[in-house]
Amino acid sequence: SGQLEASLIYENHIADFMNAAESYLYVDVGGGSTELTFYSDGKLIFKNILKKDSRESWQAKERIELSLGNAAGVNLEVNGKLMPTLGRRGQILKNILITKDTLDIPR
């Protein structure tokens, strides 16, 4: 299941390989492909479709902005914390803001 997969990934703890002074995002696409747009400190880094079973990680010095085309299709680890599912299957979420201290999901 997606929850099992997410916990296995979390146990491998990607944070051990990331710069602790920066915010980071680890994405595991487990519930179906999703379109993903990622900005690091205001600069577009990635805009494409991630297929099921894809995994990516990014960092930012101050802020991460993220948009998802299938909110339930991804497992996210943000700054060392495994996040609950952000939305429903097929739900589009735009302008998710991640900093070292916050996660803000506009509704």
Report on this model:
- The protein has 107 residues and is mainly β.
- 10% of the residues lie in helices and 47% in strands.
- It is built from one helix and nine strands, in the order αβββββββββ.
- The strands form two sheets. A five-stranded antiparallel beta sheet has the order 3-2-5-8-9, with no helix packed on it. Strands 4-1-6-7 form a four-stranded antiparallel beta sheet, covered by helices on one side.
- The chain is globular.
- The chain starts with a helix and ends with a strand.
- The mean pLDDT is 82.
Short key terms for the protein model shown above:
107 residues, mainly beta, 5-stranded antiparallel β-sheet, 4-stranded antiparallel β-sheet, 9 strands, globular
Reported for the largest beta sheet, the result is:
5 strands, antiparallel
Helix-strand pattern: HEEEEEEEEE
The percent of residues in helical segments reads: 10-25%
Give me the Rg, rounded. Answer: 13 Å
Mean pLDDT, as a whole number? 82
Please tally the helical runs, counting DSSP H or I stretches of 4 or more residues: 1
With strands numbered from the N-terminus, the spatial order across the biggest sheet is 3-2-5-8-9
Q: Identify low-pLDDT runs.
A: none
What general form does the structure show?
globular
Structural classification = mainly beta
The tally of beta strands, per DSSP, is 9
Distance between the termini: 27 Å
Indicate the proportion of strand residues. Answer: over 45%
